[in-house]
């Protein structure tokens, strides 16, 4: 695996914490990928953004020939993953997945998350 200089710098200078209990609870690699991606996207406050379906397919499901099959599978796994995000704010739109600033499911050290 080769990481871009920018990605490596961001990952080492500003790491994003993951909740290993959630990662162990998820059933598939696709769910784990979505969880890590959502945690990264929501870890630092950002403006609302729509991630186009074709961009999501390039990132998560390049093996799908039919975009509708990818979208259906992605939304199925997303539903499972977001059950760990009680405050997540996102929406499925025709244009893509709309992400609004939300808290992640990573518990602070003073308040452990219950699974």
Plain-language structure description:
- This protein has helices at residues 5-13, 20-25, 29-43, 53-60, 67-82; strands at residues 49-52, 89-92, 96-100.
- With 115 residues, it is mainly alpha-helical.
- It has one domain (19-100): Ribosomal Protein S8, Chain: A, domain 1, CATH 3.30.1370.
- It has a 3-stranded antiparallel β-sheet.
- A hairpin with a 3-residue loop joins strand 2 (89-92) and strand 3.
List keywords for this structure.
115 residues, mainly alpha, Ribosomal Protein S8, Chain: A, domain 1, three-stranded antiparallel sheet, 5 helices, 3 strands, globular
Corresponding CATH architecture: 2-Layer Sandwich
CATH class term: Alpha Beta
**Biggest sheet, strands in spatial order?**
1-3-2
How many distinct folded domains?
1
Question: In which range does the helix fraction lie?
Answer: 40-55%
- Count of DSSP strands: 3
CATH topology: Ribosomal Protein S8, Chain: A, domain 1
Sketch the topology as an H/E string, one letter per element: HHHEHHEE
Strand content: 5-15%
Q: Label the structural class.
A: mainly alpha
| Radius of gyration over C-alpha positions, nearest whole angstrom | 15 Å
Shape: globular
Kindly report the average pLDDT value: 85
Major sheet size, sense and barrel closure: 3 strands, antiparallel
Instruction: Give the helix tally.
Output: 5
The N- and C-terminal alpha carbons lie at a distance of: 33 Å
Unreliable residue stretches: none
């Amino acid at each position: 695996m080769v990481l871009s200089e920018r990605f490596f710098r961001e990952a080492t200078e500003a790491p994003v914490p993951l909740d290993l209990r959630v990662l162990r609870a998820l059933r598939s690699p696709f769910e784990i990928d979505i969880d890590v991606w959502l945690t990264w996207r929501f870890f630092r406050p950002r403006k609302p953004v729509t991630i186009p379906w074709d961009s999501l397919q390039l990132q998560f499901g390049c093996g799908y020939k039919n975009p509708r099959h990818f979208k259906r599978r992605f939304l199925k796994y997303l539903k499972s993953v977001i059950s760990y995000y009680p405050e997540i704010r996102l929406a499925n739109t025709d244009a893509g997945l709309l992400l609004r600033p939300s808290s992640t499911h990573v518990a602070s050290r003073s308040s452990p998350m219950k699974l």
